Amino acid sequence: MTGTAPTSAPSGKRMLSEQVYTHLRDAIMRGDFAPGDPLKPHDLAKEQGVSLAVVREALVRVVGEGLADRLPNRGFAVPAVSDRRWQEIAEARRTIEPAVLRMSVERGDVDWEARVRAAHHRLTRTPAYAPDEGEHYSSTWAEAHRVFHRTLLDGCGNPVLLETFDRMWTASELARRWSAHRDPDRDGALEHRLLEEAALARDADTAAEVLTQHLTQTADVLTAPPRGEAEQAAAT
What we know:
Helix content is 71%, strand content 3%. It is built from ten helices and three strands, in the order αβααββααααααα. The chain has helices at residues 5-30, 41-48, 52-64, 84-107, 110-124, 139-153, 159-182, 188-200, 204-223, 227-235, and strands spanning 38-39, 69-71, 75-77.
C-alpha cells in the first residue's frame, strides 16, 4: 500500500513558500518596506495566512538575493541605504562591466548590433512607472532595463563573464531602485542613449567611459542625502 501524503505535504509547503517569497520580494522591490524596516515573521505569517516555517523559508531566500538582512538575535530587516554592500557591488561592477563592454564592442557582430538597437528601442518605449506597482520602477521597465544592459555585454561571447554580470545585477537591483527614487531628475534615458550610440559606433573607449559614469552615479546617489534634505540643508 502506498500513500501520497509524504510527498504532497512537502510539495504544498514549497508552493506556499514560493508564493510568500514572491509576495515579499515584490513588496520590497515596490518600496512597500522602507530601507531598514524590520521584516517580522509573525506579522508576515498572519498577513499571508501561513505558518512561521513557510515564512522563514521565504525570508531565507530573500536574504540570499541580497534583498534582506538576517540580523543576529533581531530577526530580519530590509537593508539600509547606507549599507556598505551597495558601494562594494558598485565597485565590482565598475571594474568588470566596462571591460566586458570593451570586449563586446570589439567582438560583437551585426546580429549583436541589431539586438542592442532592439533592446534600447524596447527600453525607451516601456513606461518606467506603473500606478499599481508603487513608487519604484515597474517590473516591466526593470526587465527591459536589464535586457538592454545585458545585451550590450553579450557580444563579448564569454558566458562566465555574463554569469558574473547576472549575479551582480540581481544583487544591485534594490539599490538601483532606491537611487532612482532619491534622484528623480536624473536623465537615465540620455545615459542609455549615449551607451547605445557609443557601442554601435564601435567606440570602445567612449562606451566604457559612459558606462563607468552611469554606474558611478547610481552608487553616489545612495551616499548623498535625499534631494529634499539636501535642499533644506543648503537653505539653512
